[in-house]
Amino acid sequence: MMAVPGPVRRLFGAFPLETRPAIAVDNKEVQEAGSPLTLYVYNLSDDGVCTDPEGLECQAVFRQNGQKPLVLTSSLHVCSKGRLPYMVERQRDKVRVYNEAKSIDGNVVKQGQVYLTLIKVALGDAWKMTLLDPENEQVKRQLYGCNREPESLRFFASKEITQLFLTQLESRHAPFVNHCRSWLFNWKAPLVETTCAEVMEQADECLDVFETLLDDRQFLHEDQIGREDIMLFSYIYLITTYLDQSPLNDLVQKRPSLVAHSKNVYKALFNL
């Protein structure tokens, strides 16, 4: 079992945690052979890999469980919850809809949940901040499928993703979000630069934690892929693949063991 390093306690003391209730689902039914499962995501790469972290995490959890659901690209316009991914399971006359990886995989031990929350908050905020940078507008449109929308809707589709990111950041970075929603918005404003620096510092500390935990192992749990491996991979893989010119990628590249870990998880789950 992984020991909790000191930096984790210090990092968690710096900002509140984001928690959402899990959506109940009968995991035994989901994992039955031949279950008609469909995973709806923003976009897919040429090799069939989801291009956003939450979608990729769900896709990887299914694959770890030996399942390969039908994966389809979708849009916020057709999602009642206003965000992707979401999964649909059809069995006889019942349809179940759920949208979090933990609904697929059941409960995670308390210590594991600490690490999952750390990744989701620290790397998740850094991921969103990076894509909110106007210089990365085209990358954001690519990853979240906005370029697939009709020409007349592309601008509005991108704005919807931006508003989704701001809503998810608001509880931890309210002044930054208020500025972004203001007609005086300026990405070079001191408030924005300060907030981005703080978020990148938290991401740097998070990466330190997992570099320490990984040590010289292939996966965090010795030779077995765990939920922490999957969520960490879902960010590292996408950062190194699509945000290679960003300061966030620079932080990742300083840690070759984490880059190698991402490749190991990809090879185990996707390069079969």
Automatic annotation (TrEMBL):
Superkingdom as given in the UniProt entry? Eukaryota
Please name the Pfam families in this protein's record.
GST_C_6 (PF17171)
Outline the extent of the Metaxin glutathione S-transferase domain: 203-264
- Which InterPro entries does the annotation name? Glutathione-S-Trfase_C_sf (IPR036282), Metaxin_GST (IPR033468)
- Recorded protein name is Metaxin glutathione S-transferase domain-containing protein
